[in-house]
Design goal:
The protein has eleven helices and ten strands. The chain is an alpha/beta fold and 310 residues long. An eight-stranded parallel beta sheet has the order 9-8-7-6-3-2-1-10, covered by helices on one side. It has a two-stranded antiparallel sheet with strand order 4-5. Helix 4 crosses helix 5. The protein is globular and about 50 Å long.
Amino acid sequence: MTSPATTTPTTLDLGPLMLGGNVFGWTADRDQGFAVLDAWLAAGGRSIDTADMYPQWVDGRAIGDSERIIGEWITARGVRDQVVVATKVGQGDGREGLAPENLRTALDESLERLQTDHVDLYYAHVDDESVPQAEYVAAFGALVAEGKALHLGASNFSAERLRGAVALAAEQGVTGFTVSQDRWNLLARDIETDLVPTLAELGIQETPYSALASGFLTGKYAAGAQVDSPRAGTAASYAQKPGADRVLAAQLEIASAHGVSPTAVALAWLRAQPVVSAPIASARNPEQLTALVESMTLELTADEVAALAG
């Protein structure tokens, strides 16, 4: 195990893309997970996103299966100092909520599964209004002071609650949330109304999840194509959203112009947003990783960004 840095930088370098760990223990078993992680590191990837509850939504899967695979890989490869590891608390079976004692216990369990003594980024997976906000803000800050977490994030918070948490951390003199993780893609843009301006004002980094709309924005669902995927139902629902056909057409045109995949275009559009540090996307095998890696160096023009946004 490695020790955390003695000082914590104000901005966390996640690289141009975070690898989503939600598939590990679900559509990617241990060996497949290792293959994806090996390819990710070899391609220049540096950050990995997971959560204690991944993938407990699948029957027979235990809390922390994704973390276990990632931890075993980190130890087997000896690469802890080469990767940024982010995990979350608040939705795991038996570890629901943000009560201070739950935060500490859940993080200790996550650290054991990840086989490390600290995480680089620790998220509140969801807000918890049953706990006084001042209490969980202080508890998260204490975990940073102890070196168990280097940075803190808030996922799925309203703009108002995020603003309140940041203000409380400043009042208490503790480390507060500096990263936000929320659903955001070309067809799910609700956060642009209130949350994105708040992030810009507070200087908080955004790491969007569902960046590819459960696979819909990869282009493989074009023209109503039937796809064999555990996410097919969710992905297909995006086809009913207003503007879906226009977005796919713009993606395909821009992808053709750059000689890349529609996946790369969707991810590059998010990365072009001023508050976005790195979008999150997952791959269940190294072949799927190819399109994700393409996005890491794709730079869209201002006109292309505008055309995609509509």
